[in-house]
Amino acid sequence: MSTRPNAWHSATSRLIVIYGALFVLWGSVLVGVIQWETTNYLNRVIDQLLLQRMHYMAVTDPERLAATVDAAAAIDPHGIMSVGLFDHDHRPVAGNIEHLPQSLPQDGQVHPLQHGLPRPDRDAERVRARGLATTLSNGDILVIAKDTSTIDGIGAIIRRALLWGVSLTIIPGLLGGFLLRRGPEKRIRALQDATDPIRQGDLSKRLPVSRRSDELDQLAGIVNTMLGEIERLMNEVKGVCDNIAHDLRTPLTRLRARLYRTQQQLEGAPEAALVEACMVDIDAVLARFRALLRVSELEDRNRAACFDEVDVGQVLRQVHEFYAPVAEDRGQPFELDVQTLTPIRADAHLMFEALANLVGNAIKFTPAGGKVSLRASMDKRGPRVDIIDSGPGIPADEREAVTRRFYRGDNTPTTAGSGLGLSIVSAIVRLHGYALEIGEAASGARLTLYCYALEPSEKPGTCLSRTVPEVTTSAA
């Protein structure tokens, strides 16, 4: 199984978010500048209109000024351009401004009215306005003001235009980004699917390359070239090792045969014991060569095509029956606890070999009088087998190394063996796509074989660096 990437973590999604945020930011700045410039321009136009109207009113004959003010107010019933004439006591004389604005300086300059002006057509609602006031030669005060709500309306239009612009840009951008993202996501999934068998150790597989010749294809090509070189080097090393192991078996077998004949001729002589020791050493070397060739054979993944349904419980009972006499000779109680298990797709002979190696190691490293338990239970995803012993255990810093070829722990220097047993188990586990976990029990080691595929967060291979869960059966 492979972990699917989060769609929102893709480069396309990030670019969409970044460009969308930049568009909104710069669009807001642009609209703000446009609105500011527009407001300033319209304010200048209003100021010019007010100054021109004030100049016209100020040069009008004082005797006709009140009538002129009333006429100007009459032609503007909505109060857009308000005019008011007040005497020196601030009483209204003419126009449609009822009260003299207190905050408006009488300096003949245009100022914004702090409290606005009432609009007759809006139920006397006050609106923003700009105005100016001047004192005439006869002491009267002339006030002219203009409603500036038009500027606010233009600002609202500009802001709505920004909203529509953002909507009409972001929404198609998201849709387009979704469509653009689907292609790379599909290719990434294809690359992930192609890496699964490579991750499991099949270096003959290659990443798919499309006709686009884009960055992903270039990267896939680089990886394929690297895989080809790695496969070549691995095959050369494997071939050399296999050839050495295979070629040396013949002369060593001949040497052992000659030593055996020499031993027969020297029967009863003191030299016979020396010849016997030489034969023991040669047998150990031959056993290592056989184990090496066995590991190479198991690393051929084509054997997986011959898998069939296997009853794990039956295999465990065969292993228990096979090793029960050995445990009895060592005075070790050998417990078997098998629950009801579902069948698995596997090679029955290889499963027996793997479990036999694990049980054999547990019996070998458990001192006389110790205890070995073989248990099987059902997890949510499939069968689980636990081999628990009361031996010295495997240190945490050696649990990855013990599955390598020829590795022997510091606590087993005098124990007979080639250091290839767990390597064979490791190859069988990888071939089946299962997981072997090496942990510790209450008083020894616990080796757990999970007979199902790994979770995406777990690494393939033999030893998983996670805490060993307790089984539900009785404690060891």
Automatic annotation (TrEMBL):
The chain crosses the membrane at residues 12-34, 161-180. One of its GO terms (molecular function) is phosphorelay sensor kinase activity. It comes from Dyella solisilvae. SUPFAM superfamilies: ATPase domain of HSP90 chaperone/DNA topoisomerase II/histidine kinase, HAMP domain-like, Homodimeric domain of signal transducing histidine kinase. Pfam families: HAMP, HATPase_c. PROSITE patterns: HAMP (PS50885), HIS_KIN (PS50109). PANTHER family: HISTIDINE KINASE (PTHR45436:SF8), SENSOR HISTIDINE KINASE YKOH (PTHR45436). Keywords: Kinase, Membrane, Phosphoprotein, Transferase, Transmembrane, Transmembrane helix, Two-component regulatory system. This is histidine kinase. It catalyses: ATP + protein L-histidine = ADP + protein N-phospho-L-histidine. Residues 243-455 form the Histidine kinase domain. It is found in: Membrane. It is an enzyme of class 2 (transferase). Residues 186-235 form the HAMP domain. Its EC number is 2.7.13.3. Gene3D superfamilies: 6.10.340.10, Histidine kinase-like ATPase, C-terminal domain. SMART domains: HAMP (SM00304), HATPase_c (SM00387). GO terms for cellular component: plasma membrane.
